[in-house]
């Protein structure tokens, strides 16, 4: 492990009857226990409450009931950091890739000289060593997501909250980013909560895939992946079987489509 990582590993995430409501209507009512260092994928229909769950973990929303905990301490009181990664990168457009990463290091209190070296090392980890001086506007969508990942890692989070981070990328770039995420995760061993619409992405990344109900989001089914992230897994019958199971839970299976078309 490189010294730039300085990783404390991941935090265990516990959602214990976590309830978030907007007005009268709950948007999420979730029980989940995520071991430290796991990649847990959340899948669910649009508007069911996936982003709401992540925002509660980031401390941006206060639960109406229940608890969200990191290593057994409520999020609001925890000193462990959760970092959000969004579909739209939130880079500062007037700062170069390097300076965007350095900015995050400033927030962590890293001294000026160490900042430059650490920013370069982080950018190298995401494959952008030759683009440190480029402005976000000069980078492709995939490259901007790489900068965002480097900047996020600079804060040394113990939990990565990823809200459909690769949803706007083309298929090849998306696949590259999935690979990069796995590489980075192997080094940092943060816990990852990853929200996606894409069933294949869920099955390729997750140790477990949690299928949520329509609003309010509750745990509908937990699917364990016995050998997660094994190369070539997507070409095996088990993969297709799980894919089919999940699509059926989401009401998107070919059978349902045929039935509703006939009805
Ligand atoms: N700040 C808010 N005020 C009122 N309703 C909200 C707010 N944020 C989200 N919602 C509603 O809560 C539900 C869940 O939203 P969200 O968590 O964003 O869904 P998802 O990410 O699964 O698509 C949706 O019906 C959404 O309209
Ligand atoms: Mg969302």
Model description:
There is one protein chain. With 263 residues, the protein is of the alpha/beta class. It has 2 domains: 13-81 and 156-262, P-loop containing nucleotide triphosphate hydrolases (Rossmann fold); 92-155, no CATH class. Helices cover 36% and strands 22% of the residues. The chain is built from 8 helices and 10 strands. It has helices at 50-57, 97-107, 112-125, 141-154, 171-188, 199-205, 237-249, 254-262; strands spanning 13-22, 25-34, 39-43, 65-70, 73-74, 82-86, 159-163, 191-195, 208-212, 219-224. A 6-stranded mixed beta sheet has the order 6-7-8-3-9-10, with helices on both faces. A 4-stranded antiparallel beta sheet has the order 2-1-4-5, with helices on one face. Helix 2 crosses helix 3, helix 2 (97-107) packs parallel to helix 4 (141-154) and helix 3 crosses helix 4. The radius of gyration is 19 Å and the shape is globular. It starts with 12 loop residues before the first strand and ends with a helix. The model has no long low-confidence stretch (mean pLDDT 92). Bound molecules: adenosine-5'-diphosphate (ADP) and magnesium ion.
């Amino acid at each position: 492990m490189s010294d730039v990582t300085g990783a404390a590993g991941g935090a265990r995430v516990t959602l214990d009857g976590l309830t978030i409501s907007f007005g009268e209507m709950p948007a999420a009512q979730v029980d989940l226990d995520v071991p430290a260092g796991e990649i847990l994928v959340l899948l669910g229909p649009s508007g069911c409450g996936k982003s709401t769950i992540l925002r509660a973990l980031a401390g941006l929303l206060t639960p109406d009931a229940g608890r969200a905990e990191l290593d057994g301490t409520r999020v609001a009181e925890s000193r462990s950091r959760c970092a959000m990664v969004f579909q739209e990168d939130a880079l500062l457009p007037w700062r170069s890739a390097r300076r965007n990463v350095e900015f995050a290091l400033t927030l962590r209190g890293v001294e000026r000289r160490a900042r430059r070296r650490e920013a370069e090392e982080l950018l190298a980890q995401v494959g952008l060593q030759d683009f440190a001086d480029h402005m976000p506007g000069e980078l492709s969508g995939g490259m901007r997501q790489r900068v965002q990942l480097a900047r996020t890692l600079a804060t040394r989070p113990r939990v990565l909250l990823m809200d459909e981070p690769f949803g706007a990328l083309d298929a090849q770039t998306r696949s590259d980013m999935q690979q990069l995420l796995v590489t980075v995760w192997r080094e940092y061993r943060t816990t990852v909560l990853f929200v996606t619409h894409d069933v294949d992405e869920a099955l390729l990344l997750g140790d477990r895939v949690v299928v949520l109900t329509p609003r309010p989001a509750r745990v509908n089914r937990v699917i364990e992946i016995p050998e997660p992230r094994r190369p070539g897994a997507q070409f095996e019958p088990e993969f297709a079987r799980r894919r089919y199971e999940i699509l059926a839970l989401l009401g998107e299976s070919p059978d349902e489509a045929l039935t509703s078309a006939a009805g």
